[in-house]
Design a protein that fits this description.
The structure holds two protein chains of two kinds. Chain A has 25 helices and no strands. Chain A has helices at 3-6, 18-35, 38-44, 46-52, 54-73, 78-99, 101-126, 135-148, 151-162, 169-195, 200-228, 244-266, 271-291, 293-296, 311-319, 326-351, 354-364, 366-371, 376-402, 412-425, 430-454, 470-484, 493-499, 512-515, 519-539.
């Protein structure tokens, strides 16, 4: 079976592969379970050592994950595809994880990065805005939970208890009043400008109200913190785990708000400027996290971070034979799986919605989209906020999983890692970016450390250790994909056509969209469009 | 520190900023020239520049025991760095950017980021095989001395500078002179030679330049060669100024220099110099804000330290792009459909 036929998304044209799919599923599941069964590996001796090697493990895990991919790609009976998909993720993977906790950890990491890649895919793949500071939103989500669910919160309360300033219950009232009034007037002005064109006065009063809203929220939250400062001792290890579910929503909200705040000033910019500015703002958030010692504990990082308390789930996991320390990871596994599923659903629905079309229009040609009535800034802001919110919720789960976060977890390099996942899988293609996330995460967490171990006995200097060559790997992924297959491994069909724009100019009139136009009108079209396209290719700029 | 000592201190900070600004200016020229002809942010330029710094380090290291005039060593280092960085830049263009002419704009940009990452690790591994990561420059003796401390011919100048409170090392002065010479040569090439004219024509309109018989691919290569050579020079100067470089140290100067290019107006050569000098001064002032905070007794200013320098550069960039995207000396460019 050649590679193109395996990765071809055109499912109907192929023979039925139900039996093949089931067979593949059974074999890879057996291999996965066996290769993570410690007693079995020990009984194998030298061969067991080989199977335990991170590189072999990565190979088996990727073979196993290929199940899910093939269930999506291949033509097979619906029951078989459902069985393989559900069976792999809900039964086989957790059972292998029961033998080997690190596998659970690895799967959670893969899914967290898949969600990040899906979020970045909206911004880069659909809306065509290169965001190099994406990990900042991940950081916002992580710190939203990290600050409140750790001893940090009590520290902040103590600090404000000792330095209350002029804040008291009256401040809280003023702050709340200001918040409500300004928020209401913003809503009112917004409604007004929906009915009649905005004037200079309405624009400025809207901005003034926004400023008032920020001031009101600051006052109210400061007053609330001061008033709560008496509780510092009872909150010594952070707020109650029960707030976990509330904060899942809050982290989405916080990241989306930061997305809008970052997006507002910069989204007027063109592609390459936008890239470097987002890179900068991502760094700004990291440097702030590094320097605002009171809130983020600076470079020491925040620890220990609490997570949800789920006794019902623990008893369920216990009944399934998971050990005590695995309960928590299993819970996160299920949670991440559900959240990832929801994110995927949101993505697919958005892609087919009016907003999704507007994103693609902007990506293809900003000026033309604007001429067609797409509100540029608003549409781009929605892309930014949506992408950010996915990163926010996963950031929070990441904080709960690691129980430790520091600014170093959110550097520029992470953003580029997520970008390379999107590029590898294919910009704009949902299965593609998930595949990209799995491949890059496996490379990062298993294959590179494995290579490092394998070459440890060579006595190479530490700098040359292949375990540290992430930059090289990411760079090679980015460059080779852009040069050889810019549409990615699992391309989105429309994107492929755009990127191979000059190769298939002739068959524009016979493929999908243009085919609907009659032959005559297609000719009229190409007569007008062809010279412009030609100039585009030669000049290389718009 | 009181106000009487503050003034000379500030003068020194600003002079130091101007010296640093010349390094940024030369790096910025690399960005701005490539942007001029290709409308591409060459992310790999920061690594081209670090390559120059590494070559300079190697030359000084190899020549360490050799009895030779210090200026001759510097010249060898500069020429070697120019050659290797220039060749590297041309190679990058040929292999990574040329196949992508006419592709959507995002594609070469992402490629440039990838090239930058690859070069970082390649440089790290090359030096890593000798067990090195941080490369500390071994400058010829005397370079770190005070400017014109003893030599009788120029002592009056050095005494005058110290008299007005400016403290410069010999290497700072050398740095400024090298930068000025490079600027003069660049100005000559771009404005007075046939090749420079052709490069400017390609930057203005590649298609029309092609119709006039200019081989635009060759001119783009020439631009990358010049930009790379400037990167090599700036790498050696950067190494001299800071004393230590490593494979990853291109990021910050790269960002600052890019900001300088945008501040001056991207595509404009005098703009890049102006922007570089401005950014150099801003960077140095941010670096001492905590000291100023101590002087004026403001606790809020005292927290600002060198780690905010990067933020400073980005904030300048954001502000320019929002309020004057064409930069100080740039021409406005209306987008055509």
């Amino acid at each position: 079976m050649s590679l193109p036929s395996m990765f071809d998304t055109n499912r109907d044209a192929k023979p039925d592969r139900t039996i093949l799919l089931i067979a593949f599923f059974l074999i890879t599941s057996a291999v996965l379970l066996a290769s993570h069964n410690r007693p079995f590996l020990e009984s194998m001796g030298a061969a067991g050592q080989f199977l335990k090697n991170p590189i072999t493990e990565a190979f088996f895990v990727s073979l196993f994950l290929a199940n899910v991919l093939f269930a999506y790609l291949w033509k097979a009976a619906p029951w078989a595809r459902a069985l393989v998909g559900v069976g792999s993720l809900l039964i086989v993977l957790p059972s292998a994880g029961r033998q080997d906790t690190s596998l659970l950890d690895l799967s959670i990491q893969i899914m967290i990065f898949a969600a990040l890649a899906l979020g970045l895919n909206i911004v880069v793949g659909l809306a065509g805005l290169l965001d190099l500071g994406y990990v900042a939103f991940f950081a916002v989500g992580a710190y939203t939970w990290g600050i409140f669910a750790s001893p940090r919160f009590a520290e902040i309360l103590r600090y404000y208890g000792e330095n209350p300033g002029a804040t008291n219950a009256g401040t809280l009232a003023i702050g709340l009043f200001l918040t409500v009034v300004t928020a209401a007037s913003m809503v009112y002005i917004n409604r007004l400008t929906n009915r009649q064109p905005p004037t200079a006065t309405s624009t400025w009063s809207f901005r003034l109200a926004a400023f008032g809203l920020v001031a009101g929220l600051t006052l109210a939250s400061r007053a609330a913190v001061v008033l709560m400062s008496g509780q510092a001792d009872s909150l010594a290890s952070g707020i109650a785990p029960g707030f976990f579910w509330l904060f899942l929503a809050l982290s989405v909200l916080a990241a989306a708000i930061v997305g809008v705040l970052i997006g507002l000033p910069v989204l007027r910019l063109k592609g390459d400027y936008l890239a470097i500015i987002t890179l900068g703002l991502g760094e700004v958030i990291r440097v702030l996290a590094n320097n605002l010692d009171l809130y983020t504990a600076g470079s020491q990082g925040i620890t220990p971070i609490r997570s949800a308390n789920v006794p019902w789930f623990n008893s369920l996991a216990g009944a399934l034979g998971f050990s005590e320390e695995q309960h928590y990871l299993l819970f996160l596994y299920v949670l991440v799986l559900i959240v990832l599923g929801m994110i995927l659903l949101v993505n697919v629905r958005l892609d087919r919605s009016r907003i999704g079309r507007a994103w693609i229009a902007i990506r293809d040609d900003e000026v033309a989209a604007q001429a067609m009535g797409v509100p540029l800034v608003q549409t781009k802001l929605i892309a930014f906020a949506t992408g950010a919110s996915f990163a926010g919720i996963m950031g929070m789960i990441f904080a709960a999983k690691q129980t430790f976060i520091s600014p170093e977890s959110f550097n520029l390099f992470q953003s580029i890692g997520v970008l390379s996942m999107v590029i590898l899988g294919g910009m704009g293609s949902f299965p593609g970016v998930i595949l990209g996330a799995a491949v890059v995460t496996l490379l990062n967490l298993r294959i590179l450390p494995g290579l490092g171990e394998a070459t440890a006995h060579l006595g190479l200097p530490q700098q040359v250790n292949p375990g540290q060559l992430q930059r090289l790997i990411f760079g090679i992924i980015l460059v080779t994909m852009m040069l050889l297959r810019p549409e990615g491994l699992l391309p989105n069909r429309r994107r492929t056509r755009e990127l191979h724009h000059e190769d298939n100019q002739e068959d524009d009139s016979v493929d999908g969209n243009a085919g609907a136009l009659g032959n005559t009108s297609a000719e009229v079209y190409s007569a007008g469009v062809a010279p412009a396209k030609h100039e585009d290719n030669a000049g290389g700029r718009r | 520190m009181d106000l009487a000592t503050l003034l000379p201190f500030l003068v020194n900070v600003i002079v130091g900023g101007l010296v640093l600004g010349f390094v940024y200016a030369i790096i910025a020229l690399g960005y701005t020239m490539v942007y001029g002809v290709l409308q591409l942010i060459n992310f790999a330029h920061s690594e081209v520049f670090v390559t120059g710094a590494v070559v300079g380090f190697e030359v000084f290291r190899v020549l360490k025991g050799v009895e030779m005039n210090g200026y001759l060593k510097l010249l060898i280092a500069l020429v070697a760095a120019m050659t290797i960085s220039g060749a590297l830049n041309v190679l990058i263009e040929r292999l990574a950017y040329r196949p992508l002419r006419g592709a959507p704009k995002l594609v070469p940009l992402i490629t440039a980021i990838g090239v930058s990452l690859i070069l970082q690790d390649v440089l790290r591994v090359i030096e890593g095989f000798q067990g090195r990561f941080d490369l500390t420059y071994t400058l010829p003796g005397g370079f770190a001395n005070k400017f014109c401390a003893a030599e009788s011919t120029c002592a009056p100048l050095g005494n005058f500078l110290r008299g007005v409170g400016i403290d410069m090392q010999l290497k700072d002065v050398i740095l400024v002179i090298v930068a000025l010479i490079s600027l003069a040569v660049l100005n000559y090439i771009v404005n007075r030679t046939r090749m420079g004219k052709a490069i400017r024509a390609v930057a203005q309109d590649r298609v029309t330049a092609g119709l006039m018989g200019i081989d635009s691919d060759r001119m783009i290569s020439a631009t990358f060669l010049i930009g790379g050579a400037l990167g090599g020079i700036s790498g050696v100067l950067f190494g001299m100024k800071f004393g230590t470089v490593n494979a990853y140290s291109g990021f910050d100067p790269g960002i600052i220099a890019f900001t300088a290019a945008v501040l001056g107006g991207i595509g404009s050569i005098p703009g890049a110099v102006l922007g570089g000098l401005t950014l150099g001064v801003i960077q140095n002032l941010i670096g001492v804000t905590n000291i100023l905070g101590m002087v004026v007794g403001s606790a809020n200013l005292e927290v600002i330290d060198a780690s905010y320098q990067r933020i400073g550069a980005f904030l300048v960039l954001v502000l320019i792009l929002i309020f004057k995207p064409t930069g100080l000396l740039g021409k406005s460019n209306v987008e055509k459909v």
